[in-house]
Amino acid sequence: MKTLTLCPPAAGAHDSLPAPAHKMPGHWLLARLGKRVLRPGGLELTRVMLEQLDIQPRDAVVEFAPGLGVTARLTLSRQPASYTALERDEVAAKEVQSYLTGPHQRCQLGSAEQTGLPEQSATVVYGEAMLTMQGPEQKRRIVAEAFRLLQPGGRYGIHELSLTPDDLPEAVQEDISREMSRNIHVGARPLSAREWRELLTDAGFRVESEATAPMHLLEPRRVVQDEGLFRALRFVFNVLRTPEARKRVFSMRRMFRQHRRHLAAISFIAVKP
Ligand SMILES: C[S@@+](CC[C@H](N)C(=O)[O-])C[C@H]1O[C@@H](n2cnc3c(N)ncnc32)[C@H](O)[C@@H]1O
């Protein structure tokens, strides 16, 4: 396997942010500033998810929305029989494809809603920080696609943003989703743990395990844990020296902090019976 050097999409662009930094989806803004880990529970929850997925050399793995490919790298170190990723962002898809090798590793440009991959061709499917940004119908379609792709006994892992507690009044849920969508410039519709569970079971899955972590995406300690000290310092430097980006990153962090009582990262492992 090739050694990876991951760069944000449009590598180097973080040196001079393009004009629409104020409009860019939050995750790509963070990526341009040098952040690679873009999921709510950080690498810690990713590792829990991968541990529970228990990927083995016999597994055919499909990843939905690999982003910059940080989890792809962890998966490939487990040497699965095959690895196929579906990413709808062209630059990110090329980036991930650039470090895949051989006929059994590929990253396709496309949507997780309709992968075009054969039915029951996978034993493991997973996706992180990608369902939260979909509307209710798209969420259902993506989970149904994971179900279609998996063989019986296959495992599906998700790592997403959740609203807590389960009985949070609907008006509060809607307020948080609306404010978050406005702030990060991507539709964000996190679900409660119960709703995530229902989404999976309604598609036919049996939920086998779940784990949670605090939503600390932009908290200094988590940034260092996820990126390492050097990258974390570079990220902070890039944020501080670009006024427009600074404004947005601080605004995102303020919003996450303001709603911290009601936000968490959650991961589920579900099995196709
Ligand atoms: C917040 S980023 C998360 C990236 C990566 N999974 C991570 O956790 O670092 C969301 C990613 O989902 C991708 N995405 C969103 N909807 C998608 C879909 N329907 N099919 C494939 N990729 C999708 C975006 O292009 C982006 O790369």
Write structural notes for this entry.
With 273 residues, the chain is of the alpha/beta class. It has a domain at 38-214 and 262-271: 3-Layer(aba) Sandwich (Rossmann fold). Helices cover 41% and strands 21% of the residues. The chain has helices at residues 26-32, 42-53, 70-76, 90-97, 136-149, 170-184, 193-202, 220-241, 243-258, and strands spanning 60-64, 82-87, 105-109, 122-128, 150-163, 191-192, 206-214, 263-271. Strands 1, 2, 3, 4, 5, 6, 7 and 8 form an eight-stranded mixed beta sheet that branches. Helix 6 packs antiparallel against helix 9 and helix 8 packs antiparallel against helix 9. It is globular and about 50 Å long. Bound molecules: S-adenosylmethionine (SAM).
Salient structural properties:
21% strand, 41% helix, globular, 273 residues, Rossmann fold, eight-stranded mixed sheet, alpha/beta, binds S-adenosylmethionine
CATH class of the domain at 38-214 and 262-271: Alpha Beta
User: CATH superfamily of the domain at 38-214 and 262-271, called what?
Assistant: Vaccinia Virus protein VP39
By secondary-structure content and strand pairing, the structural class works out as: alpha/beta
Query: In CATH terms, what is the architecture of the domain at 38-214 and 262-271?
Result: 3-Layer(aba) Sandwich
Unreliable spans are: 1-19
Q: Calculate the terminal CA-CA distance, rounded to whole Å.
A: 33 Å
Count the helices. How many? 9
